[in-house]
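Chapter summary example.
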Amino acid sequence: MRRLGLVLLLLLAVAAASGIGRYLWVQVDPETGTWRLSSGEPLPPELRQRVVPGQYLELENGRLEPKRMWRPPLDLTKTFAPEDASRVVFSHERHFAALGAKGETCETCHRTLDEQKTWESLAENPALEPHGETSLGRFCATCHDGKTEIAAIEGANPPKNDLVFTAFGRPGDASCNRCHAPKDHGPDFTARHGDAVEYGGRWACADCHRGTLQITQAEVEQARAFYHAQMRLIENPEDDAAFNVTLPNNFCAYCHGLDQKAWYDD
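The structure predicted for these 266 residues follows.
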């Protein structure tokens, strides 16, 4: 621990010597609960109660100062036992895009997620509840019930108001594959990528995804604006306008066909 502290002090000294401000952000390991800086160094204990995951810190003149702005936390990957449950990847940014909002919607989930350890099943048929009482799957089903409209979620301002897909189903149902990835699939974990891409050599996206040919110019411009906004946030995390730029609704699904409609029929 002393050695890590010395490394952090060295990092602060270098920044102080340069006189140039530098932005870091707070990361949390979801498996171990360890808080650290984006540089890999541990978060100083005196800052633990002053920051939240994703929050920016300005490193200037040898001091770390929490800033008001934050970035979406990284994707969370949870691996479950038994193995047939495999893993689930939760994307904050994908949820922000679907909800059409960022900071306004965080408390919608975390107010409940952080206070409860068990969740009541909302499945109409007990046989369709695949998750245990303490499983995050039951928490997800608070919205993912197949009946809730995105616009009805607190804080949401969706560019397109759809029903949220369901988290209920028997093992092997298609609904399970929307969250759970087979263990032999890579990060792009749609159900057919395992065989077609991982074991089939190099493939071009458009070889399978007809959705790539349906992206409108307006959506391309919005995605380009999102990219440039992310670059501006690196330079200035307090840029409110850049922070609230989102991707087009379901933009990822043009290539990552969650409903399987983005695939060629052949």
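To summarize the output: The beta strands are 22-28, 35-37, 55-60, 63-70, 76-79, 87-90, 180-181.
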